[in-house]
UniProtKB/TrEMBL annotation, chains A, B:
Taxonomic lineage of the native organism: Bacteria, Bacillati, Actinomycetota, Actinomycetes, Streptosporangiales
Protein known as: Threonine dehydratase
Any Gene Ontology biological process: isoleucine biosynthetic process
Organism of derivation: Sphaerisporangium melleum
MF terms in GO: L-serine ammonia-lyase activity; threonine deaminase activity
InterPro entries per UniProt: Ser/Thr_Dehydratase, TrpB-like_PALP, TrpB-like_PALP_sf
Domain of life of the organism encoding this protein: Bacteria
Cofactor (UniProt): pyridoxal 5'-phosphate
Tryptophan synthase beta chain-like PALP domain ranges (all copies): 20-304
Keywords: Lyase, Pyridoxal phosphate
Cited Pfam families: PALP
Amino acid sequence: MTRLDTDRIRAARRVIDPVFLDTPLYRCDALEPALGCAVSIKLETANPVRSFKARGTELVASRLAGTSSPAAVCASAGNLGQALAWSGRGRGLDVTVVASRFAPAAKLDRIRALDARLELVDGDFDTARERAAALARYEGIRLVEDSLDIETCEGAATIGLELVDSAPSFDAVLIALGGGALATGVGHVLKSFAPGVEVICVQPLGAPAMTRSWRQRRVVTTDSTDTIADGVAGRRPIQAVLDDLLLVADDAVLVQETSIIAGMRLLLEHAGLVVEPSAALGIAAILEDRDRFAGRHVVTIICGGNVDLPAYHRWTGAPPVHGP
Amino acid sequence: MTRLDTDRIRAARRVIDPVFLDTPLYRCDALEPALGCAVSIKLETANPVRSFKARGTELVASRLAGTSSPAAVCASAGNLGQALAWSGRGRGLDVTVVASRFAPAAKLDRIRALDARLELVDGDFDTARERAAALARYEGIRLVEDSLDIETCEGAATIGLELVDSAPSFDAVLIALGGGALATGVGHVLKSFAPGVEVICVQPLGAPAMTRSWRQRRVVTTDSTDTIADGVAGRRPIQAVLDDLLLVADDAVLVQETSIIAGMRLLLEHAGLVVEPSAALGIAAILEDRDRFAGRHVVTIICGGNVDLPAYHRWTGAPPVHGP
């Protein structure tokens, strides 16, 4: 049994602002000649924070809103912080986000614009996690830990409900793997209601800690990460999340940076979607193993679209946009 | 009274494939500093044909599907043809699309990929209209006339229902104006259920026929068009559509090409959306008249996202994407 509970996930739908729910799910024919399989898009970028993360922060913020001094701090690669800032702003929460100073500027700018306090650390996401934990202890406020805190997994799991409620005709779901909230949340629901659907997690070769942990069935950490997929670049998997992942994932695969970039290009050229690298992991996995997916119907969750445009243009082949 | 009927529009929702319904509607804070007003996006591009046109073609195709030799022909700037091809493919319809050979290649390629017969004419959209009408007469098949055929207006009007059902807090809706199906359909519903919301149609200065007609309250044609907004570039407004537009539009404004391009850039940079020029008309209208919208809450319908990427990159400031 995972830490997730289906009744709680269904209840979560009543708490989350509807603007984040019932996101588009559609076959994308135009991608299929390039990929050799049927592909459906589950699009999590057409909302005020351009990622799925607000599904979880809506739960966190709504529970905190009733307390006497509502405040929260989180470490974030950028999307969780933006989502927590959004959810907190509407509920009078005092939100602090700790992020790496190497996080995409677009994400950091949006966090500031949403009135959160932003603290930058000289280090990566796991450095930010330590700092956020210290801040929470010192200030006595709620620490929101992505993937460990059950709300972050339950929020992500509501995507799974939407997939199974669509009367799925698909054979596999490709899920970006970072801390594991998305994979364990969606995976839990799929295994409960559509056990025949393959749950495939995808992580960059340059940030393989959770995938290695899943394969070895124990937490494996790495000393560093090296990937453009900033949203999934963690070094220290959480045991409780790994335990859940072992129960719901059918596979975890690692993909190369060049495949992530090719995936971003395909999504731009054939689907008209601007996605961040983490959101192209599923397409990257198909590109690296066409035989596996040939003739099958695959869903890929487009989990975020927050990019620095100059980097995005570099990746997709065009130089930075200049002013008018 | 317009030609539209609210009961028929509500009934249309039960016929249209749900993949085209209940599209995202969300406040886009990130756009607001650049525009000086509150902006909500109604996003019609996250579906298999990347435009709102399938709402109408679903109605056309479902009615034709029961007939003895189901076939249809339409003239299209690209999006209607793609939508009719999609709706027809799923229902065994024989679809012919007549388009200008100057239509975006991406749109023409998608029409072909959806198994429609594509006939190109040496001329513009209105030349294609004549040819489609001739084909329909010659072959004795259904001619689908955008904006004139009530299904195309009713399909578009379902967007209006979604706007008013969202318990609108907005003051104005900005609607791309071409043939008029979108404007009359959405406008009819807004005037019926949210009469205080201003209905503002936006057309390019380079294709002003319908706006001039609306202002003069009679059909005014032009000899040519000169705009990158291919989706709204008609020269010959239809009297019956103009009659409806006169009843539901509060204003019709014309915008410059540079504003359309600036709008596309803003939507890319601050909303992460790749849109075709017609879909940037609303943002262009705000840019050209900030005082009018200052402090108000405006909805803009992002009606389509089918672009030729080389042209799109040229407009938004970056050169064409090159292969890996």
